[in-house]
Amino acid sequence: MAAIKVHGHVISTATQRVLATLYERELEFEFVAVNMGAGEHKKEPFISLNPFGQLPALEQGDLKLFESRAITQYIAHWYGDKGTKLVATGPKMATVSVWMEVEAHQFDPVASKLNWELTFKPMFGLTTDAAVVEENEAKLVKVLDIYEARLSRSKYLGGDDFTLADLHHLPNTACLLRTQCKKLFDERPHVSAWVADIMARPAWSKVIAMQTKQ
Amino acid sequence: MALKLYGTSVSASTSRAMTCLYEKGVEFEFVSVNLFAGEHKQPPFLAKNPFGQIPVLEDGDLTLFESRAITAYVAEKFKETGYDLMRHNNVEEAALVKVWVEVEGQRYNPAIAPIVYQFFVAPLQGKSPVQTIIDENSEKLAKVLDIYEAKLSTSKYLAGDFYSLADLHHLPYTFYLMETPVASVINERPHVKAWWEDISSRPAFQKVAAGMTFGGK
């Protein structure tokens, strides 16, 4: 099969989602760093890979994919058979799908807004909006309360095994843990244990190592 | 035992799940949830979906929520019957379907849902539509649709020259949008307009649209 190329940036949470998946599946790939500062992602040739001008994109032969969660599913479902399975079959996959959607529609919008205000705005010299932080912390609390209940009955979100449903949370969670939001995770014992578990995975450590190399 | 779908006929998310069931020709029992009585926020329903939202699908012991997880399950379980929504026999096409399913979920939906909410749901709660929310999101939606216009000038549907789950997921919210002045974002883009007319005329969606009477039509 043709080689995999990932176009992205090591600080992009969506890129990290894809990198974690490739490392979990022990797949070889070429990483092509996209110069966001120079607006490379908004111009050709990147735009031909992703017309929405966002990172990451995956190229494999003629196949061009974008949207990190579509890429992770492609890698997990159809590509290679080494490493961590990350998906399931039949009714078990249905439950994994549910919690993948929960990450995408309940967790991510809130976590992304908080990370933008608390992590990225300061990085770019912009002012944090306290009202947005307060509003989204309240939303995050509601989501994490549901996670706490779920994780008291299930080792991982999708079931007994680590899957994409858990993995998709890694990049934004890692960011949030470096902000005032850390306490919201720490205060919930099952959530806290789950976070510690998924962040200790070797594949995730490899993603972190890519950041420190920059 | 037949599948049970919990929701309401006017709910866009419920309609998404129902359209998929009809496309696959799958028998199901529809169980109406009394949103006005707050049924979805009370313990019996919360045991099915802790987020207190419709729809919910029950298949024997399996309980699912999140409309796009429900459609993915139905499309996969019944992949050998009805319309081929996920292109399961072709890895590349299946991957492209996933891409445009994510585009709907991550780009299209966040822009269109607030517009539909302001026009249809806010009035039910005694509130006037907030024009700034409509305007901001109409602008976002227009930018997304510019990209759709370019894509749909190179392929008949979003993932390729085949109708797929990616197109289906757009149906319910777009249906409501077309009943508002913001319909112009669709009508002004010829390929998007042609795509919309095609996908919304499919019998499976026509069945569902008959119950989507939010606008009081």
Helicity level of chain A: 55-70%
Oligomeric state = heterodimer
Question: What is the number of domains of chain B?
Answer: 2
What strand order characterises the main sheet of chain A? 2-1-3-4
The CATH topology name of the largest domain in chain A reads Glutathione S-transferase Yfyf (Class Pi), Chain A, domain 2
Residue share in β-strands of chain B: 5-15%
CATH architecture of the largest domain in chain A: Up-down Bundle
Regions of chain A with pLDDT < 50 over 5+ consecutive residues? Answer: none
- Rg over C-alpha atoms of chain B, rounded to the nearest angstrom: 17 Å
Which radius of gyration of chain A do the C-alpha atoms yield? Answer: 17 Å
Helix tally of chain A equals 10
GO molecular function, one term (chain B): glutathione transferase activity
Domain GST C-terminal (chain B): 90-217
GO cellular component, one term (chain B): cytosol
Main location (chain B): cytoplasm
Report on this model:
The complex is a heterodimer of chains A (214) and B (217). Chain A is an alpha+beta fold. Chain A is built from 10 helices and 4 strands. In chain A, 57% of the residues lie in helices and 8% in strands. In chain A, strands 2-1-3-4 form a 4-stranded mixed β-sheet, covered by helices on one side. Chain A is globular, with a radius of gyration of 17 Å. The model of chain A has no long low-confidence stretch (mean pLDDT 96). Chain B has 217 residues and is an alpha+beta fold. Chain B has 2 domains: 76 residues, Glutaredoxin (3-Layer(aba) Sandwich); 112 residues, Up-down Bundle (Glutathione S-transferase Yfyf (Class Pi), Chain A, domain 2), CATH 1.20.1050. In chain B, helix 1 links the parallel strand 1 and strand 2. The radius of gyration of chain B is 17 Å and the shape is globular. Classes of the chains: A alpha+beta (214), B alpha+beta (217). The interface between A and B is medium-sized, with 28 and 32 residues.
